Amino acid sequence: MPQIDACFDEHYAVALADAQSRILFLQAQGRLFEAVSSVNFAPGGDWSEATCGTNAIGTALAQKKPITIFDAEHFCESWQPYSCAGVPIRHPLSGQMIGALDLTTFTEKFPDNALPLTMMLSKTIETELYYRVRLEQAQLEQCFTAFHHDIKKDTLLAIDRDGRVVRHNRDPEKWTFSWKSSFDWETYFIELETYNAEVITQPLPFFAKRPIGNVRLIRQEQHLIGVLVQIPCERKDSRKFYTGVQPPSNSDTVGRDPRWIHLVNRVERAAQQDVPILLLGESGTGKEVLARRIHQHSARKEGPFLPVNCAALHHSLAASEWFGYGEGTFTGGLKQGKPGWFENADGGTLFLDEIGELPLPVQAMLLRTLQEHQVTRIGEAKPRDVQVRVIAATNKDLREAVRKKEFRSDLYFRLNTITFTIPPLRERPDDIPLLAEHLMRQVEIRQRMDIVHTLSPEAIKDLKRYPWPGNVRELKNALEHALVFADGPVIRPEHLPNSVRETEGMITTDREIPVPPSTDEKEYLKQLLASTEYNLSKTARILGIARGTLYKRLKKYGLR
Asked: Where is the Sigma-54 factor interaction domain (predicted)?
């Protein structure tokens, strides 16, 4: 923090804490840094009065005013060699205390103007915070202005991170819904930050009756600053409201699993480079979802996105489908001819799903087009230039297919400039409840259901234990089944398909590793890892445990 650098030298420690007295930031140097760090005066340290007794941070927040604490006035004996000044920091608009600033030094170094200096610095922080909040609100207002022209009967609200309604297009007295008396906006926005979609459709938890609405996430330099909330005011408008507004595929990228978030972030980064991408993953893991996300984050997003199922392509029709045909080429064909897939995807993205199923002769056709960026329609002599980005996907081991000469090595190396492996759903058990909620919202909207359903704890437990061989696709089918047979707003285990409720084949995240009798667990794991060539997914499947459990055991025995 430049203000702190300008005011203090190595004789002072300056700390910034949140409203719960937990240190967020510490600036200190040399001997003083070593001394204060040894008593947990460091980021993450809890300095509330309940934990540490009298101290500048906790006492300033408890008494809601600036305070000076000298040496022996500290409750903790280890803190008595120091003197401190503490000043609460308040939100510039609401006036609520959001943290505290602390100045600490050895008592003999404590200056007479320590408290006024700390108060001045806290005011500087509050002023900068004020301008930041106003800037964010101005951006929210601009977004509101850009969207409200298209909204007629619906209610549109611009809400900042603190839950303040910055703008609205309808008199609150005419709203058909009411706010909850208390709502945790901080937790709500933390949850929203896990979403990878620009717009999500959900029951709005901050209203008493939880009406379903659209929530558009407004970001400033990747930081979520607020939302635009659109709510249909009349039931008759619901068909118009939901058609084309929610992105049906992006919600499938929701997840909190660190590996999943890392994957999505890398996918978005790779999307900005116009190179081929290969997506690997089991059936139903969302390969097309990620392919669409790549397209949406690329320079070709205004162009077409054309998905092609290579497994359904008949060899005899391959040439006409890939390249099209000219005028009068086929009896019974279109008189004016027909463009092929490459021409239809020109300027955009061609998604080749199940690329591993392509026959070898068709692979040769594809390779030549990728090399030359030209296609020649059947029945024509003049080639046509095409600029297409290719994203390929498969659930097969293409390296093994190349080794068996079932897949061309030159095509493989052209397609896999960047490769992403999508984890199966069973390796993301903590993402299942969140993903299930989103999938249920999709079904409820599509089926025009009046009830917003939730999952019981028992149902969530069953969903997390089931191994999901069909991944997200199977989860969605299971939830559709449950919504059909649910007799109320709560989904219970008996509403789920029998296959999900059966205990056979289920996994848990904390079960013991099944070690043969008279065998050391560590040695057994080493032998098993060697036999699978350290393929952790395969090892976990053999053991019948979640991958997370395997990670913990490997870390325990130092095998990672």
From this structure: 253-484
Residue 529 lies in a domain: no
The answer to whether the CB of 463 falls within 8 A of the CB of 479 is: no
Q: Is 145 within a domain?
A: no
Q: Is residue 263 part of a domain?
A: no
Quick one: pLDDT at residue 408?
Answer: 93
Instruction: Encode pLDDT of 410-433 as tens digits.
Output: 999 999 899 999 999 988 888 898
**Is 552 inside any structural domain?**
no
Q: Which of 104, 131, 158 is the last residue of a domain?
A: 131
The pLDDT value given to residue 270 = 92
Q: Answer for the pair 414, 370: CB distance below 8 angstroms, yes or no.
A: yes
CATH code where residue 318 lies: 3.40.50.300
Residue 328's CB is within 10 A of a number of other CB atoms, namely 12
Amino acid 89: pLDDT = 94
Say whether both 343 and 243 belong to one domain.
Answer: no
> Cβ contacts of residue 117 below 8 Å, gap of 6+?
7, 85, 103, 111
Can you list the positions of beta strands (E) in 448-494?
454-455, 490-491
- Per-residue CA distances from 281 to 26, 436, 547 (Å): 44, 20, 16
Q: Are 127 and 6 members of one domain?
A: yes
Confidence of residue 18 (pLDDT cuts 50, 70, 90): very high
Report the side by side order of strands in the sheet with 389-394: 305-309, 349-353, 389-394, 277-280, 418-421
3 state SS of 476: helix
182 shares a domain with 98: no
More confident residue, 381 or 348: 348
Assess whether 126 and 154 both reside in one domain: no
DSSP 94: T
Q: Which carries the bigger pLDDT value, residue 69 or residue 173?
A: 69
403 plus 279 within the same structural domain: yes
Main-chain phi, psi angles of 137, to 5 degrees: -65, -35
CB 309, CB 353: distance < 8 Å: yes
Instruction: Give the domain extent around 203.
Output: 150-247
Average pLDDT score over residue span 363-373 = 87
The last residue of a domain, from among 63, 97, 131? 131
Least confident of 48-57, 203-212, 240-249, 279-288: 240-249
Q: Residue 200 pairs with which residues in a beta bridge?
A: 215
CB of 466 closer than 8 Å to CB of 506: yes
Same domain, 26 and 126: yes
Query: Are residues 471 and 283 in contact, defined by beta-carbon separation less than 8 angstroms?
Result: yes
